[in-house]
C-alpha cells in the first residue's frame, strides 16, 4: 500500500520559494531561528509562545554546515537538517520552516520582513541579529524567558553519562 506524504512536509520551504509563500500568510508574522537539534520541552514551549505573539510562525533552521561553524562540537548536529526541519514542521504552532546556510539569519530576516522577531531568554535584545532592522520597519523584538531549563547540550551530556 502506498501511504501519502504527511501534510506537515508541505510546511518546509526552500529559501528561494520563501518570498512567494510569505505573500499568502496572514500577518503579523513571527520569525525565529536556531539549530533545534534535539527537540525538547523547552523548544516546543518557546515556539508555542512565539506563535502566540502573531498569526503565523516562520522558523529558519541552521544548515548542518552552519551548526558546525557555531562551534557546538564535532558531533553536532546530532540530527541532520532535513530531519530537524520535518520535526519542527510537524508542530501545530509552526507555519513555515526554511533554512539558512550563512553564519546569521540576517538575509532571511530581511527577505521575510517579520512583524515580530523572537529569540529565547538567553539573548539580550541588542544582541539579536536583525533586531535593529525589524525595529526600523516598525516591528517588535521579543526575548521569551525559559520556562523549562532544557538544552540539547545537557541532553547529550546526560546520555553520555548514563
From TrEMBL:
Top-rank EC class of the record's enzyme: transferase
Residue stretches making up the Cytidyltransferase-like domain: 31-134
Cross-referenced InterPro entries: Archaeal_FAD_synthase, Cyt_trans-like, RfaE_dom_II, Rossmann-like_a/b/a_fold
EC number(s) recorded for this UniProt protein: 2.7.7.70
The organism's place on the tree of life at top rank: Bacteria
Gene Ontology biological-process entries: carbohydrate metabolic process
Catalysed reactions listed for this entry: D-glycero-beta-D-manno-heptose 1-phosphate + ATP + H(+) = ADP-D-glycero-beta-D-manno-heptose + diphosphate
Spans through the membrane: none
PANTHER family linked: BIFUNCTIONAL PROTEIN HLDE, FAD SYNTHASE
Protein name as annotated: D-glycero-beta-D-manno-heptose 1-phosphate adenylyltransferase
